[in-house]
Recover the amino acids of this structure.
C-alpha cells in the first residue's frame, strides 16, 4: 500500500489530568507568528503595534464564536437532537473562525477609528501564515482528511487516537491539509509581490480572500464532508460566495480612479 504513514499521537503530552494536543500547540504557535508578522506589516502602514495586539485578542475571541457557530449550522440535525451539545461539544469550522475573527477586527477598528482597509491589508499575510501553521496540527490530528486515494503521497493514519472515521484508519487518503498549506504558500507569495504594486487600500485583503476562497473551493473536492447543495459542501458554497464578492470588489476598485491612499502613487 503506497502512502505516507502517520503514526503520531494527537496528544502531545499530559499535565496531570489535562491533555495538551498537538493541534492546540500549533494554533498557539500560529497566533503568535501571525501576530508578529501583522505587527511588522502594520507598522509599515503607520498602525501602532498596541492596536494590533488588542485587535488580535478581539479576533481570536470572535473567531472562536464564529468557528463554533458555523460548525453547529453545518451539523444542525445533530445539535437539534441534543441542543446541550452546542455548549458541550468541541467541533469548529475554519470558515467560521475567519468570519468571526474578521468581523470582530472590523468592530475594533471602527471603535478605535482605525482605517479599516489599512488594517485589513495588514492582517492578510499573517492570516495566511497562521492558516498554514494551523494545518500542521490537522496533519497530525487526521481531522481534515481527504477521500481514499491510491496516490503515492496519500496519508495513512495508523495511530488509534487519530481523529478520522475508524473505517479510514490504515487507509490511504488525500493529504488535504498539505494541499492547503501548499496553496496558501503560493497565495502568500502572490499577495506579497502585489502588495508593492497596489495603490489602494483593501486590495491586498481582497486578493487574499479571492485566492484563499478559490483554493478552498477546488481542494474541497477531495474532502470527505456532507454535501449541502448542488453537489457542493458547505465550505465550497461559502468559498464560492466569498470569491464572487471579493472579485467583484476588486474589479470595481480597479475600475475607479486611484484615490489618495496610504502609498505614494
Amino acid at each position: 500500500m503506497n502512502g505516507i504513514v502517520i503514526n503520531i499521537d494527537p496528544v502531545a503530552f499530559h499535565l496531570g489530568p489535562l491533555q495538551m494536543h498537538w493541534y492546540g500547540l500549533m494554533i498557539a504557535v500560529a497566533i503568535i507568528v501571525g501576530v508578529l508578522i501583522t505587527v511588522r506589516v502594520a507598522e509599515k502602514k503607520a498602525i501602532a503595534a498596541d492596536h494590533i495586539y488588542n485587535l488580535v485578542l478581539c479576533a481570536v475571541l470572535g473567531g472562536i464564536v464564529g468557528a463554533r457557530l458555523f460548525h453547529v449550522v453545518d451539523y444542525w440535525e445533530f445539535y437539534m437532537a441534543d441542543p446541550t451539545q452546542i455548549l458541550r461539544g468541541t467541533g469548529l469550522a475554519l470558515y467560521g473562525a475567519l468570519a468571526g475573527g474578521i468581523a470582530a477586527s472590523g468592530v475594533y477598528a471602527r471603535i478605535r477609528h482605525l482605517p479599516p482597509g489599512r488594517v485589513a491589508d495588514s492582517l492578510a499575510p499573517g492570516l495566511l501564515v497562521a492558516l498554514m501553521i494551523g494545518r500542521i496540527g490537522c496533519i497530525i490530528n487526521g481531522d481534515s482528511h481527504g477521500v481514499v486515494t491510491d496516490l503515492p503521497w496519500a496519508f495513512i493514519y495508523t495511530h488509534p487516537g487519530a481523529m478520522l472515521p475508524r473505517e479510514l484508519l490504515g487507509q490511504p487518503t488525500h493529504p488535504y491539509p498539505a494541499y492547503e498549506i501548499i496553496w496558501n504558500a503560493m497565495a502568500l507569495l502572490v499577495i506579497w509581490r502585489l502588495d508593492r504594486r497596489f495603490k489602494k487600500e483593501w486590495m491586498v485583503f481582497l486578493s487574499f480572500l479571492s485566492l484563499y476562497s478559490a483554493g478552498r473551493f477546488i481542494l474541497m473536492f477531495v474532502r470527505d464532508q456532507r454535501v449541502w447543495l448542488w453537489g457542493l459542501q458547505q465550505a465550497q458554497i461559502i468559498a464560492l460566495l466569498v470569491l464572487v464578492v471579493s472579485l467583484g470588489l476588486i474589479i470595481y476598485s480597479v475600475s475607479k480612479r486611484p484615490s489618495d491612499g496610504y502609498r505614494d502613487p
